[in-house]
């Protein structure tokens, strides 16, 4: 009897300490989520709210097919970058044939590519853009001013578009038009990646705001008072599970706009408690999302997902070689 009582006390003690350890653990874990999200004022949210802007070109049905695309490419461009769009259409956005699934039960790795833009003052653009949109059905344009400072607005627009018009895609990739994308590597690699709350790219874990006024990336203390950024992925090209596009769009009502769009996405991820995943090559631990410029080398590129710095002509030349001979490395 006494012995049983002792045992019971021990069990209770153990139970209490387990709860204590657990709560300390939870406290430590939530430490890097600094404050509970406070909704923005209406005026602050209006900057990124989809209700503020009107579509000039949209493709509401382009994704509503069965099955939905496996990967949706969202490419921010400005209206005048027709040549860059042409190069993307003729290179990685239309690989010779989608790699076929290893078994009939697996999904086919299809992609869909759409270009997102605001408006410019140049009226001459209007009719050529109309023609391009009719011809390719891949232009989404909203009536905000297309400037570098408004890239964050464009990014939130892309996340909203994906969650509204393409909710059944498996993955979404935000990628600039001057990026080389090795879809032959990327698509099979993604097949085995997480489908929820997943975002990967070139992770920047120790970013800090620049305060010098002369920098293109400068932020005032008023725009961003903290002295560190939360982890984020470089904006050149990153991949996320499609559910996370909708969650980022939702989180945007809690995050004040900063003109650095990739940092902004990082701030939305912090609200959601999602950490970006590193994408490193097995042996070398080399970053698969290469955000520096590299000279084209077929066999080096065949082991990377993206490479930065490809003007349209260079992209077309590299692709001509890569698309047919990447397998021979
Ligand atoms: C997504 O899938 C659901 C269920 O299969 C379907 O009802 C819906 O119409 C699809 N939505 C789009 C936009 O394709
Ligand atoms: C962003 O777009 C809005 C809406 O067109 C415009 O009023 C604003 O001036 C733009 N901001 C910048 C910094 O370009």
Automatic annotation (TrEMBL):
InterPro entries: Glyco_trans_31
GO molecular function, one term: N-acetyl-beta-D-glucosaminide beta-(1,3)-galactosyltransferase activity
Bilayer disposition of the protein: Single-pass type II membrane protein
Subcellular location: Golgi apparatus membrane
GO process annotations (BP): lipid metabolic process; protein O-linked glycosylation
Record-level GO cellular component terms: Golgi membrane
Pfam family, one: Galactosyl_T
Catalytic activity, EC: 2.4.1.-
Glycoprotein in keyword set: yes
Residue segments, region Disordered: 86-106
Keywords: Glycoprotein, Glycosyltransferase, Golgi apparatus, Lipid metabolism, Membrane, Signal-anchor, Transferase, Transmembrane, Transmembrane helix
Pathway membership, UniProt: Protein modification; protein glycosylation
Transmembrane keyword on record: yes
Recorded family membership: Belongs to the glycosyltransferase 31 family.
Record-given protein name: Hexosyltransferase
Originating organism: Solea senegalensis (Senegalese sole)
């Amino acid at each position: 009897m006494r012995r049983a009582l002792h045992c019971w006390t021990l069990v209770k003690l153990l139970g209490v300490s387990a709860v204590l350890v657990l709560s300390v653990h939870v406290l430590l874990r939530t430490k890097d989520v600094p404050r509970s999200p406070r909704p923005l004022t209406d005026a602050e949210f209006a900057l990124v709210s989809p209700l503020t802007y009107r579509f000039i070109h949209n493709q509401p049905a382009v994704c509503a097919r069965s099955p939905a695309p496996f990967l949706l490419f969202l490419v921010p461009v400005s209206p005048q970058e027709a040549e860059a769009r042409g190069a993307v259409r003729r290179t990685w956005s239309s690989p010779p044939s989608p790699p076929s699934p290893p078994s009939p039960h697996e999904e086919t790795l299809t992609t869909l590519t759409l270009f997102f833009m605001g408006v410019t003052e140049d009226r001459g653009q209007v009719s050529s853009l109309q023609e391009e949109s009719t011809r390719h059905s891949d232009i989404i344009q909203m009536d905000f001013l297309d400037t570098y400072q408004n890239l964050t607005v464009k990014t939130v627009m892309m996340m909203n578009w994906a969650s509204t018009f393409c909710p059944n895609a498996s993955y979404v990739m935000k990628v600039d038009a001057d990026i080389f994308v090795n879809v032959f590597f990327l698509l099979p690699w993604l097949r085995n990646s997480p489908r929820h709350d997943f975002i990967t790219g070139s992770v920047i874990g120790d970013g800090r705001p620049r305060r010098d006024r002369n920098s293109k990336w400068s932020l005032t203390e008023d725009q961003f008072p903290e002295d560190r950024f939360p982890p984020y992925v470089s904006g050149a090209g990153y991949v996320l599970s499609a559910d996370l596009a909708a969650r980022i769009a939702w989180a945007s009502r809690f995050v004040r706009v900063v003109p650095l769009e990739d940092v902004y996405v990082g701030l939305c991820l912090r609200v959601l408690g999602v950490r970006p995943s590193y994408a490193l090559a097995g042996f070398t631990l080399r970053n698969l999302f290469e955000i520096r410029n590299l000279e084209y080398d077929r066999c080096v590129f065949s082991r990377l997902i993206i490479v930065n710095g490809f003007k349209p002509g260079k992209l077309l030349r590299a692709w001509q070689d890569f698309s047919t001979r990447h397998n021979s490395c």
